DNA sequence: GCACCTATCTATAATTC
DNA sequence: TGAATTATAGATAGGTG
């Protein structure tokens, strides 16, 4: 995407490599955020600076808290590629959710998706004061979790962390 | 980058959104790998599929093992150190969140129930089955939310995981 | 739905200030 | 040294079979 085609190999020139790094890192963050927004999916990106750099802080998207959450979720699923099968319970939940999602789409799809995103982000990021309405959301979630806990669960997966 | 300029917002059309998701995810993986090669840096990318998808397998680069390593490295960093350089992303998130909060306030009781269900689904979609430890974590989260509710906004970011 | 196509839009390499 | 500028390579939205 520039004046010349670039060979896909380590850039030996220090200045060029550093410039390229900063430019592409920025573009990458933008792309990841776009994907998350456009498609409403969860994603995270971690880019460490050069090893020789004094500041070894990584560029992260989205916020570190969110990233840590996604990363933890990833790490806690050593057998993640076997999640095809699901319990009757989970199936039921998915059906219900699917139905709910249909309703969502009929009403106010856009805003609703954004709301869910907001709620998840906010709860995890913990960056602001939650109002009563939010508390209700959280309470509702807690009830659901609690309910699920109290039901027999035939497919118990170990959590590594 | 196509026939038309795309609005940076959730794509409502299911087919379009899915196509875009697959295309961009692929492009993103390529970009991340290029950055790592060209600049000799460590980086990782995790992209989850739509929450309503049955297969909850995330797209991961580099290999899952490598990603887990980078993610672990990230998670093991001291908290404050991690937060330092996130100003831009945080501001971005906050702006988005502020806008979303407005919409959130307009929701009626019924829609709230749907949101909670969807949020719960997001958790379930990860394939996790909550156990007692998870419940305790959630309870802790709730306490924290409650605390925040009763205190003036400290504008302090905290890690809840 | 999926693979391929290509007009356009973006990202960015090289260059300039 | 770094912030613009510009020319191109690259990514991709909408279309086709």
TrEMBL record, chains A, B:
PROSITE patterns, alphabetized: MADS_BOX_2
Entry coiled-coil feature ranges: 90-117
MF terms (GO), sorted A to Z: DNA-binding transcription factor activity, RNA polymerase II-specific; protein dimerization activity; RNA polymerase II cis-regulatory region sequence-specific DNA binding
Primary localisation category: nucleus
Cellular-component GO terms for this entry: nucleus
Subcellular localization, as worded in the UniProt entry: Nucleus
GO biological process, one term: positive regulation of transcription by RNA polymerase II
Domain (MADS-box): residue spans on this chain: 1-54
Signal peptide: none
UniProt entry keywords in alphabetical sequence: Coiled coil, DNA-binding, Nucleus, Transcription, Transcription regulation
PANTHER family: AGAMOUS-LIKE MADS-BOX PROTEIN AGL80, MADS BOX PROTEIN
Full protein name: MADS-box domain-containing protein
Origin species: Zingiber officinale (Ginger)
